[in-house]
Every structure is written in structure tokens, then in C-alpha cells.
């Protein structure tokens, strides 16, 4: 019997991999990982305050997604988008001036540049690694959204503690009184959520964390199809990604995790 070998995973933990990917795509192209915001808007906003303008939102690994602009259009005023790919941030800045028309300007600062400047009609875009967001203050956000970043960090074979660092950083920047961490992932509940809870409570044992599974469509059945939106339901409880199979017990959670 002939066995087919599994192709190696892309180097998701490498800045060079993502820079090359976004450079090849060009400044005018956008890539929506998993699904557009409108597909989860109702579920996501149901866990937030009625006045969305009060919520301070952090989008992890924004890439060239329209998520930041969509949040701005839907009424959120305080939005920070981060990605460790400079190419992705430059591409976002090149496009955002035309994607959020008729909205007031927001201050925009690059992580490497301490001088702020105004970027008309854009969210705040910062280049930084989600495993080290020291440029962001403690307790400075009410909402953190991860659309595939934890999956990429889990798949980084060069950094076995990257996911732990990421979750610890998310916990640090979230305000403790009442905040929400949304995780959208190809991983199962069993391989994602327990890890998030264990890491968060280890950093802040005083936190009360309540996991909630959001009802969304299947977004890919393995790493090869991750990011390919499919409008069908999926049994996530039995689902595993290739990275999960390679690293059983090291990773965690899908859905929304809130300490409310």
C-alpha cells in the first residue's frame, strides 16, 4: 500500500512568509480570513454594550482584512488593528482611505514610529507581534478579536510557547472588570478553549471566565482549507486540525471567551 506524505505546513510563524504573501497580493487586494464580519456581526455584538462607540476593540493579526473598516462602519469608534507583517499594515493604510468614506478621522500610529499622524477615516493600525504587545497598555481594551491568529501561532514550530505568550498578552491588555475575547478558529472547542482558560487563570487567578460557543458556519476542515469559507454547518466537537494532531494538548479554544 502506498502512503501519501503530508505536505509541510507554511512557515506561519515567520514575518517573511506573511510579508511575501501580502507583497505578492498587492496593495489593492484584501483577504478575508474565514468569513466577512457581516456573517458574525449579530452574534458578536450581542455580547457587547448597546453603545458600541464605548467599546475599545483590538483586532489581532488584521492582515489585509476589512474587519477594522467594517467595525468602524458599524459604529465602533475605538479600534486598534495589529499585525506583525509590515507589508500587511502598509497595504491596509493604502486602502483604508477609500473603504470607510464619510467617517471622521482617527489617529493612526506605526509601532516603530513614535510620532502619531492622522490617517483619514481609518482604524488605528500598528505593526507588532501578538506574543509581545508591550506597546499597548495594561487593561486598555474591552474587546479582543482573533480571527485565525491563534491557529497560526500554534502552527509555528519554531516557538513552542508562542500561544501561551499570546494568551497572556491578551489577558494583560483586556480590562478586568468586564471584557470579551472572541476566538474564531479551525481548531475544536476541546483543543482551544481549555488552553485559553488555563493560561488566563494562571496569569490572573482572580478572573472569572465563561466560555461561550458562537454558532458560525464551518470555515475549513484542516489547515489546507483554513480560511476558505463554506456555507455549511460543521461538527466542531469532533474536528481537529493538522496542527492539533501534531501537538495534542498544547493548544486551545474556539468561540467567544468572556470574563463577564
Describe the 3D structure.
It is a single chain. The radius of gyration is 18 Å and the shape is globular. It is 29% helix and 15% strand. The strands form two sheets. The protein has a seven-stranded mixed sheet with strand order 5-2-1-6-7-9-8, with helices on both faces. A two-stranded antiparallel ribbon has the order 3-4. The C terminus is likely disordered. α3 links the parallel β1 and β2. The chain has a single domain, classed as Rossmann fold (3-Layer(aba) Sandwich). It contains eight helices and nine strands. The protein is of the alpha/beta class and 260 residues long. This is Methyltransferase type 11 domain-containing protein. InterPro entries: Lys/N-term_MeTrsfase_sf, Methyltransf_11, SAM-dependent_MTases_sf.
Brief rundown of the structure:
InterPro entries: Lys/N-term_MeTrsfase_sf (IPR051419), Methyltransf_11 (IPR013216), SAM-dependent_MTases_sf (IPR029063). With 260 residues, this protein is an alpha/beta fold.
Q: What key attributes describe this structure?
A:
15% strand; Rossmann fold; SAM-dependent_MTases_sf; two-stranded antiparallel ribbon; alpha/beta; 9 strands; seven-stranded mixed beta sheet; disordered C terminus; 260 residues; single chain
Q: How many E-type strands?
A: 9
The total count of helices amounts to 8
User: What proportion of the residues form beta strands (DSSP E)?
Assistant: 5-15%
- Whole-number count of domains: 1
CATH-defined topology: Rossmann fold
Name the CATH architecture: 3-Layer(aba) Sandwich
Q: What integer value in Å does the Rg equal?
A: 18 Å
Spans of at least 5 consecutive residues with low confidence: 103-122, 216-260
**Can you identify the CATH superfamily?**
Vaccinia Virus protein VP39
- Please state the average pLDDT score: 68
Distance between the termini: 54 Å
**How does the helix and strand content classify structurally?**
alpha/beta
Write down the CATH class: Alpha Beta
Shape: globular
Organism: Aphanomyces astaci
GO molecular function: S-adenosylmethionine-dependent methyltransferase activity
Domain Methyltransferase type: 59-181
Protein name: Methyltransferase type 11 domain-containing protein
